[in-house]
Every structure is written in structure tokens, then in C-alpha cells.
Amino acid sequence: MPSRKDGPSVDLHTQPLPRMPGVGPSVAEKLAARGLVSLQDFWLHLPRQYEDRTQITPIRLLQAGVAAQIEGRVEAVDRGFRYRPMLRVAVGDDSRATVVLRFFHFRAAQVAQFRAGARVRLYGTPKPGQNGLEIVHPSYRVLEDEDEIALGEQLDPVYPAIEGIGPATLRRLIGFALDRLPDDASLELIPSELRERLRLPTLREALLTVHRPPVDADVAALIDGRHPAQRRLALEELLAHHLSLRRQRISQQAHKARPLKQMPLAERLRKSLPFKLTGAQKRVFDEIRVDLAKPSPMLRLVQGDVGSGKTVVAALAAMLAVQHGRQAALMAPTELLAEQHLNNLRKWLEPLDVRVAWLAGKVTGRARKTVLAQVANGEAQVVVGTHALMQEGVAFRDLALAIVDEQHRFGVHQRLALRDKGAGGAVGEDAIVPHQLVMTATPIPRTLAMTAYADLDVSAIDELPPGRTPVQTVALSEERRPELVQRIRTACAEGRQAYWVCTLIDDSDEVIAQAAQTTFEELSVQLAPLRVGLVHGRMKAKEKQETMRAFKDGELDLLVATTVIEVGVDVPNASLMIIENAERLGLAQLHQLRGRVGRGSAASSCVLLYRSPLSGLARQRLETMRQTHDGFVIAEKDLELRGPGELLGTRQTGLAGFRVADLGRDTDLLPLVQELGERLLKTSPELAERIVSRWVGGAVRYASA
Ligand code: ADP
Ligand code: MG
Q1: Backbone phi, psi, residue 358, to 5°
Q2: What is the per-residue pLDDT for 693?
């Protein structure tokens, strides 16, 4: 058969999945909404994890956090209605141990099924509960006594859920697509020499292994994500992301920007500040100045620990734009954060006669019209706001500098959307675009930065302003919780405020919200008459903001919260933080949370509550938290500690949403990815193109919508 240049296979991969019996247009629509259209999209919808139903674990041997299949009999059933309906079912087995199943939603028929003595087989992840281990919403089957249910022969893949499509249908669709997997020759994009050097399988082999693990596959490796098949996929995925970011950088740098050089206004701001810049702030501002002076756009990320003083550096940079008669915009991910910036900037800039405008979702009606007019005619020299800045109808007269705070909440594409505002819409070849400054409080080690931020130059503010009293951190066992109530009372009696952070290792917002609600009610009673507030992810944005504002304004003494408070919120009067289940959080997240206190002049403390027994890793994490406050040290340690199964931390760093790669686990692949990426860009750009479109094509399409 004559070979065509691109091979017919390329088309095959990107062809829509053929119509499958029983799959109608509405299913297809739901799949498409999640980027599942072509055969290739289905091949790459990879299992999120595996369930091991090849054996039954005696209840006595269950371990918290380790998923298992068990079989036993219902011993007791309890239906409660304390805050919302709840069903608890105790199941025991021959190992003479009991585990509690807990359901927050259930139907009457389910309750009826669980009669005492009924035989059940179930699968789930136990966690410590009020009376021993419990499993929230296990998948289960009630069996008749005579039923003989065979054990699974291989691991069951669990796919990321797609709304409106049952797991069985999804599995069927993926199987259907896999049956149409072509041979290596038309599928493989990674040079064979490299694959052999690393002893990695071909893409075809790798896909078949992860979707349909063979009976003799290394189960532990698959569950940990360290199987060669997964590493093979991770390598290609990381490469795709790297290439996509590099390409973006190359194309952005082809644009032009107006050089900004004049310093007097920035100098005046610097002199008017009530403090001296730290050495790190000066150095980073100098790096920014060098970039701004060039006729090509700056693309710079400033990493700086919580409280390192990024905002003022951004304000200084903005002054160069203003000095040149042009505009700067500062965008933050939440209204509360944006408002904090607004207050700071007004305080600093208004004495210099620089006009600062405010644009957020809640600015409506006439006020909005006025702001939009000021943005459009240039009267607004610095514009602070939320996503609202990127909306239609917002037109800048002359945006020269786009600043984005807390980058990981936005992602690359939103950043570009703000840039496009400055270029007056779609960016063509010769477009003049604004300089871009991105700020993040989640430091990441250099190796990671080179991949995660391959499209940016990176600066670090690695020094805190002087005079901060370090947060005193202690780790306390859960049993000492009652002492804390007294401690909160004392702090609040002295006019201070406190946070109580509820966390659970659980994918479900609902379960966490429930736990927070319970804690909130208990503490409200125990601490009366102190004023206690609650925020969690299930509340309406408006309610959340209202409560946060009340806390900020000192109308609440204690704020019970889930990790929604993680980013950026500044309440200097809060000096005590208690983090429940601290042993389950990654270092990065603990550090972010702790950064909420120690912002004022009072000595602050952070209590890490844990449940015994601590795993070795958890112990090391808590110890690290006690020993250091340096975000960069913590980031390095985080990377070093994060072992298999410790996925939570990575998921929380908010870096790109990978299908299979894990920047913590797959760090050793990164230098290779960088090397190979540069080589491909130089020698085979069209191959690079195919790798990118295979893995991130859908994401890009989605973001530009
Ligand atoms: P972050 O980097 O977390 O965004 P901010 O920019 O909010 O930090 O700064 C935290 C606090 O420190 C602010 O109140 C800010 O005014 C103050 N600050 C910034 N730089 C300095 C400095 N060099 N000396 C003293 N205080 C500073
Ligand atoms: Mg900040």
C-alpha cells in the first residue's frame, strides 16, 4: 500500500467515535461537552484509579485510607435526621470486626434492603469515624444467602465521571473505542530510541494495559500510578503540555509591546511607602523593569510566599505604565482578594494622583457604565477587578500591563484573555500586546517550574519583610481538642479572632460541608456567647463572601471553614488557626492555610490537630511544618516526601489538570521532557503539533470558547 505523507491513521484518530448501538444524540452531546468526541478522546479518557475486587479483605484487617472489598452481614441499622437525613449500617464478618457504612442520600428501598442479617458485598475506602472505621457511600450489593459471586479477575478501572452518563455506559464506550485502536505504526509519536532507553511500552500497549489491566499486571504499581504503561503515558502527556506552553511562549514573544522605561512615578511611590522594600522585592522589581523596557512583551511569573509583599511590586510596575500615559490592570480570582488589592492600591496611589478604578461582578447599573467609560477613555489609570475585567463590553483605551494574581486559580488561557483585551481583541501577527505579570503564592521547585510554567520567566521573592513574628506551630493529637475550645475563648477574650479549618480526605464537597456544619454547630454551643461563622464550598458565593466580610470586619470571633479560605485572604487580627485532620493535607496546602495567620503584629499560632496513629510520612510533614515557614523549603520537602498514594497534595497544587501525569510523582521525567521538547520543536515541529493536539487539543479548544 502506498504510504501517504501523513498516513490515513491521523484522520482515523480524530474521527468522531462511530455510532454505538444504544447511544443517542443526547449522550453524544454530554460527552462532547467534556471533550469526548473522537476515538482518540476516548482512548485518552484514562482511569482515575483502580478498584481491586480480586479479593475480599477481612474487616479486621481494614486500614484507614486503603480501599478494599469486604463481605459481611448487616448487624445494625440507624437512621438519623440530625441536620439532614443520614443512614448508618453496621456490617460485621467472620473476622469478628465491624465497619460502619454511612449514607447521606438514600432511598427508602435502600433502607429496606439493609435488614439485620442481610449479606452484603461492598467496596470503599474506610476512614476513622466516631466508632472505629466507617465507609461513606460505598458501592455495594445485597446478596441472597445462596448467591455465589465470583471475585474479579483483574483490576476494575474507574473513570473520571461524566455528568449524566453512568459508569457502565462510559466503560462500554471506551471499550468500543479501544477495539478500534490501530497498530503502533500509525499511533506512535515517541521516538523508539527513547522508548527503548527508558524501557517504556508503545502507546498502543500502554493504553491497553491501563484500560484493561491484564490478569498478571503489577497491581500495586498500577494503583500507585507507577506502572511503565502509566509512565509512558505520563511522559507523552507532560511532553504535550510542555510543548504547548513553549509554543505559546514562542508565538507570544513574536508580538510586540511598547517599551516602558520612565521611572519617576515608580520612584515616588517607592519613597512614599511606609516601609522599605526588602532586598528580594528590589531584585524582582529590577527584573521586571528590564523586561518592561523591551519592545517585546514581558511574560513573567513572580513566585512569592504568602506575605512576601507581591502586591507592592505589582504596584510599582503599574507605575511605569501610568507614567507613559497608559493603563495597568490587576485581576484577582475572588472579589474579596480583588477588593483587598483595591484598598491597598488606593491607599498607595491616590496620594500620587493616580486614579484607580474598580470593576467586579457586583458593580452594576450606572456605576458600571461609569467605570466602563473611564476604562475606555483612559481616565482609569489602574483598573482592579475580578474576572469581570475580561468580560465583553470591557474595552481599555490603552492597556500596557496586565497583572494577574494567584495564577493557579486562573490558568494560562484566562491570562491570555486579559492580554487580548489590551490588544483590542483577537491578536494577529504584528499585534502590540500588553506586558504580563503573573503572581503566585504557591512556590514550586525549579524543576517543576520549568515545566508547569514553560511559557514564563520566573522570579522569586524569597524573603519576608522584617518584623513578622513567625507563627508558632504545634501538632496536637485529636484527643486534646477540648483544650482548644478554651484556647479560642482566651484568644477571643483578648480581642483576637480565630479560624477553625475542617478538612477530610474526600472527593465529596458534600461530606466536607456536612462535617463543617457539624463542627460549626458544636463550637457555637461550646463557645457561646462568642460569635461563630461558617463558610464552605457548598454555600452560595454571596453567602460565603458575606461571612468572610463579617469576619474581616470583626463581626465574628471564630470562623469555621473548609479549605475555601486557602488563598490570599488577609485578616491581620486573626492570630489563631486550628486545622483538623492536618495529617491528611499536603504540605503546600498546610502552608497556604497557615499563611492566613501571622499577618498582624500579634504573636500567632497554628494548631495542627491529627488523629493517631500517624503514618511516617504524615509525621514528617507535620514536623516540617513545625520547623520551617519558608515556602520554598516546604515546596522542596513536599516534592521529596510525596510518595505513592500521597496524591492529595498534588491535586491541591492546582497545576494543570493532567489525565495521568503527576508532577510530584513523575518529577524524574521532567528533565527528559524538557530536553526532548526542545529537540522536537527544532527538528520535527509537525510531530510536536500532533503530540500537543492529541493531549491538550481539547483543552485549548475549550478555553478559547
Ligand atoms: P502577598 O505576597 O502575600 O500578596 P502582600 O502583598 O499582601 O503579600 O503583602 C503583605 C503585607 O506586607 C501587606 O500589608 C504589605 O503592605 C506589607 N508589606 C509589603 N512589603 C513590605 C515591606 N518591604 N516591609 C514591610 N511590609 C511590607
Ligand atoms: Mg497576595
Answers
A1: -125, 125
A2: 86
Query: Where are the alpha helices (H) located in 118-191, listed in sequence order?
Result: 167-178, 184-187
Q: Ligand 1 test: best mutation among 270, 277, 283, 308, most atoms within 8 Å of CB?
A: 308
CA 633: distance to chain centroid? 20
pLDDT in tens, 37-60: 888 889 999 998 888 888 999 999
Cβ atoms of 610 and 583 within 8 Å: the answer is: yes
What are the C-alpha distances in Å from 441 to residues 305, 448, 557?
Answer: 5, 15, 26
Mutate to test the pocket of ligand 1, among 272, 281, 310, 312 (most ligand atoms within 8 A of CB): 312
Tell me: do 542 and 406 sit in the same domain.
no
CB atoms under 10 Å from CB of 481, counted, come to: 13
* pLDDT confidence of residue 6: 41
Cα(361)–Cα(391) distance, integer angstroms: 10
One-letter identity of residue 652? Q
* C-alpha grid cell, residue 575: 492570630
**Residue 414: its pLDDT value, please?**
65
Ligand 1 center–CA 337 separation, angstroms: 14
Residues with CB under 6 A from ligand 1: 275-278, 281, 304, 306-312, 441, 465
b/e 403-428 (16+ beta carbons within 10 angstroms → b): bbbbbbbbbbebbbbbbbbbbeeebe
Q: Is residue 688 part of a domain?
A: no
Nearest CA to ligand 1 atom 9: 309
Determine the structural domain holding residue 544 and report its residue range: 471-628
Residues 384 and 336 in one domain: yes
CB atoms within 10 A of CB 377: 11
Instruction: Please name the residue whose Cα sits nearest to atom 20 of ligand 1.
Output: 309
Same domain for 187 and 134? no
Quick one: average pLDDT of 643-672?
59
